[in-house]
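Repro:
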Amino acid sequence: MLYKIEQLPVPEIEPELEVEITELMDAVLFKKSQGISTINEENKIDALVMLEYKLQPSDA
């Protein structure tokens, strides 16, 4: 089944979570520019997004 981007569910998130994800993304961008691994930050972002969307690892 195909969906248009406008049909995708985008949850409202708490401001604190938005700040946390933004800080992690900033860290990823900085570390990548320095050639440093970002796997820990990326895993944290993935976990936060999965939690927000109420997804299980099997849904990935």
